[in-house]
Amino acid sequence: MNAAWLPLTAIAASLLAAVIIFTLPEDARRLRTNINLLAAVIKITLVALMVRRVVQGDEAIFSFQIVGSIDFVLRADALGVMFAGLSSVLWLCTTVYAIGYLEGTANRKRFFGFFSLCVASTLGIALAGNLFTFLIFYEMLTLSTYPLVVHSGTDKALKAGRVYLRYTLTAGVVLLFGVVLLYSFTSEHSFASERGLGDYLGDHRTLLTFIFALLVGGFAVKAAMVPLHGWLPRAMVAPAPVSALLHAVAVVKAGAFGILRIIYDLYGIELSVELGVTTALAVAACITIIYGSLRAIAQQELKPRLAFSTISQVSYIVLGVSLFGPFGTIGALAHLLHQGLMKVTLFFCAGIYAEELGIHRIDEMNGAGKRMPLTSLAFTIGALGMIGLPPVAGFITKWYLGIGAIQAEMYWVVAVLVASSTLNAIYFLPIVHRLWFRVGPAHGHGTWPNEQRLGRLETHGWLLWPTVFTAVISLAAGLLAGLPFSPLDWATRVAVGEYLQ
Amino acid sequence: MITFFDGVEVGLALCMVTAALFCLFDRHLLRACCFFVGFALCMALAWLILEAPWLAGVEGLIGALLTAPCLFYALGSFSHAAKLPPYDHIREPLSRGVIRTLLALAWCLMVGATVRFIFPEMVYSPTEHPLLLAGIVMIATAMGAFAWHRHLVRRLLAFNVMGSGVFLLLAGLAGTNAQGQALITVGLVVAWLGSLLGALVIRRLYQLEGQIALSGESALKEKGK
Amino acid sequence: MTWRFGLVESTFTPLLTSHWALAAALCLPLLFGVLAAILPPRRMWPVALACPPILVAGLYLLTDTLHAGLLRWQWEFFGVSVALRLNGLSILLLLLTQWMGAAAALYTPGLLRISEPERFARWLWPLMGVVTSALSLAWLATDLLTLYIALEMMGLAAVAMLLLSGKAAALQAGMRYLLLTLVGSLAYLLGVALIVGYWGRLDLAGLAQVMEPGPVAWMAAALMGAGLALKAALFPLHGWLSPVHASAWTPVSALHAGLVVKASLFVLLQLWSLLLPDAFWAPRLIAWMGMLAIIWGGLIAWRAESLKTLVASSTVAQLGYLMVVFPLLIGPDTSPLARALAWEGFWLQLMGHALAKAAMFMSAGNLILATGETTLKGLAGTSRRLPLSLLVFGVASVTLMGLPPSAGFTAKWLLLHAMVVSQQWLAVAALLVGTLLTAAYIFRFFRYSFMETAPRQRYQPLAPGMDMIALCLALAAFVLGLLAHFPLELLQGGSA
């Protein structure tokens, strides 16, 4: 039985939510909230159904012909469902968070409309069954995130939006060129092809390498790999939920996911190794990891520090992909999920600090742990995970990546991992130290830069609960990694599938 | 008989070209328009000679009775209030005019050269088809005038003369069979409608802005702001 | 190429009902236009009542064409034979014309009600009818005479429509347009004269058989090409275009930039593929001009101060995309695959652009009407008060940028594919650079509109439906991109 409706309705859920939100009046706050949450829950249910199908060994496929031999294909395979699951769970969290965060600000209709559109594109990226479909959603993502980046409408935001577009649209054009080239010469762009592109190796070796460079170059911009990362720190002007979504699932991950798809499902891992492109990619990833960490240390404000940390962390995924061998793959895939969970937690916390206490700079964070224990606990979990300390999820990833590197006999990668973890510790531990062990302004005396109300909870529930939730999941993903349906388990399933092909 | 007929044709062609030249290059606008009426009557005669009485009728009706009043209306001859200045005083820099005229001439030489392919015998006796020749000359001069003049009424005149030249050429090349007549009739109607529209615009532009010529691109842009 | 344009004999004789449908499609717009001039509609519903018969006639013709593949009509008036044909391409363009005409007509009452009632407002209706009828005729005509009639009706009516706003700037621009279009039609007529003089016939199908390349064909092609390029505002003959749109009424601009300009291009392509089937340099010349058009039009739009100039200049650039395809459609040594792809891409781009440009002009018109500001700076901060108009503008601009999921993207994909297959790297580069330039000028406007610091102005509320019509057009371009398969099958079908 082929459930074509499943992937389609999953995308339609958020798309429809966007359309409805756009047609609602600006002040229909309650209705908008309900629709948002309803759509998010429906989406999670649908993705869960898709997961069940994949477990049963049955992929839901939806396709129709666009033109000639080009089809629009949505295919819920293991890898796609993995990313879809991440995006739908985090959508729910960020939506709840955003509802609380944007309480009482202007232009919320526009914000939530494009937010839903952005998530619909992410889901489309996850489920795209061929490169053409992927491209459709990838560009949709670019367009739908622009209004979110410039949401505040200040000069700085508009400038950031311009930089963002300059990077991503150029990348989109490069990508389009690469895809057209590939399709013109090989008539191949499906992610489900059995043979991969191996047949063309003999005749078109240089061309294949060139196309690989174009495609990966196009994706690397969104994945913020050095030197194509310039837009990411600037895009930090966006509201905190946007930053969280951008960094955890939507934009940055879309780029990394694209690279995954190219290497595993389009070229095939053997062909990529054969072409020698993986080594180059591994080097680029390592440079990005170290560079991102070094720049993060230099940042004195919280959000930019997190941004550079993202640049560094996302490249772990790329690094894992470019290590030939199942362990590297497992590490990469698991990190896709883990990093999303941990990063979203960190950004949520940063948003809460900024909103509640007006904290933007790191040296203002002294003693915030006492004032906001739950938030700070969540932050600590996220930070420890980023460093890669057990038992948080980040540890699992680094462990697998290390094993993968050793198996692939790329020992310098291990050195990079160690160095990066040290650097991570250098820029995260001081924050944790400040949170818990420094004495801050006295409780309730309003000496934080811009302290807000004090309710029963340390902050608004809409903000707090998603944060706690993602922190708990990050912890659980590390502690309970051995259970079925944990990120690690699913990553292993995907990796086994890739290598048995 | 044949020579006599040719003589009539040559004479008519000469008359027509003269009328066209006066109409194009007389700076006294009212006079130029009167020349245009004469020119249109010559055209009607030419159609008679070419054995196309239908066209002669249409030309007489449209050219002399409909288009000419449009032009007079544009000049403001029917109203007492806002007459256009009787003379066209706009002087163009010589270089611009020369370049434009050369372009127009080169263009028409090409047309003339192509006509040769259709009438190979014209190589030996260029005066075989005097009306055809008149048509080419009229197109060339009108084209030059159209490019050179800036006064809108004069450009409209130039367009009309050019149209007549094209019709003559068409008749000379294709003969005055049903197809040719149909094309020319449509062309005449279009030319009249164009002139009517043009006359209305000229009139209104003059009333609104006191303009009798199109301002340059840059001036227009500044206005837009 | 002749079969692609349906210039072949048809074995089917059209049914009686098809005759009526044809008559309705060609004459009803005129009739209703005149009717509306006598009794100008103040609300949308009279227009909404008038549109269905025309649209139904179009749909009926569509089903007929789907059955027969090619329909031909032939009549003889006073010894002049006139023939019309309906193949996949012409029915597509006919439907596009009818639906866009209907959209423009539905948009008009609201516009006229809000803006001050003008002296000449009632003249808009018959002129709109003439333009729609003439366009329909232009897609169907198969001989030079009918084409000439259709082009001239269309051109003159278009000039008159553009003049209607009656401002001095509009009159200036309109006068320039009038003079140029008249001269352009004379150039066309001169070309016809050469063809009739040499081959003695006017019907395209017959000409295709007797035509042989030579100086006469070249000269005729050059003359007609120059005339039509002038009417189609192909670079470098585009100078008249943006001033004309700067002060024209919105539905007029929508129809003009969307369809009228395209009709001349359609005729140009049709005639050239007939006259110059194997020319090497002429289509390349057009293509180079097209590349320059993409760059130049993009830069002009980028520098534009007023929103209308931006939208109008983008037409120049978008026509460049179509020009770049010429060497793939006309000329020797193009592989059948590349030609088929280019053929599909060309028409898809044309249709997508027509819809999107109409939507864009309407939304721009809405923005300008609501705020009373015409410059980009003056329109700063509109995203807050006029989100729907801005959204329509955004949706339409996605098609113009050629980003998915729009007709512009699918067309660009097809064109790029064709160009890569035939290794025209320069054209590929032009298309890609064009995408970025388009994005640059589109987002320049969006940057202003997202400004929160802009001063608050008073806004005039729009009439109901004005935004929705534009939105429907813009979404139609999306749907066309995703379901491109169906129209393109029509294009390739017919009697091959």
Describe the protein's architecture and organization.
The complex is a heterotrimer of chains A (501), B (225) and C (496). Chain A has 501 residues and is an all-alpha fold. Helix content of chain A is 73%, strand content 3%. Chain A has a domain at 276-501. Chain A contains 20 helices and two strands. The longest helix of chain A is centred in the middle third of the chain and has 32 residues, at 155-186. Chain B is mainly alpha-helical and 225 residues long. In chain B, 78% of the residues lie in helices and 0% in strands. Chain B contains eight helices and no strands. The longest helix of chain B has 32 residues, at 178-209. Chain C has a domain at 281-496. Helices cover 74% and strands 3% of the residues of chain C. Chain C has 20 helices and two strands. A two-stranded antiparallel sheet of chain C has the order 1-2. The interface between B and C is large, with 51 and 52 residues.
Strand order within the widest beta sheet of chain A: 1-2
> Which class best fits the helix and strand makeup of chain C?
mainly alpha
The biggest beta sheet of chain C is recorded as: 2 strands, antiparallel
Q: Beta-strand percentage of chain A?
A: under 5%
Structural class of chain A: mainly alpha
Helix content of chain C: over 70%
Stretches with pLDDT under 50, minimum 5 residues of chain A: none
The SSE order of chain A reads HHEEHHHHHHHHHHHHHHHHHH
- Write down the Rg of chain A: 22 Å
Name the chain pair whose interface involves the most residues: B-C, 51 and 52 residues
Give the tally of β-strands of chain A: 2
User: What is the subunit arrangement here?
Assistant: heterotrimer
Question: Can you list the strand order of the major beta sheet of chain C?
Answer: 1-2
What is the global morphology of chain C? Answer: globular
Residue-averaged pLDDT of chain C: 88
Domain NADH:quinone oxidoreductase/Mrp antiporter transmembrane (chain C): 141-438
Protein name (chain C): NADH-ubiquinone oxidoreductase
Transmembrane segments (chain C): 20-38, 45-62, 82-108, 120-141, 147-165, 177-199, 219-241, 253-275, 281-302, 309-330, 350-369, 390-413, 425-446, 467-488
Subcellular location (chain C): Cell membrane; Membrane
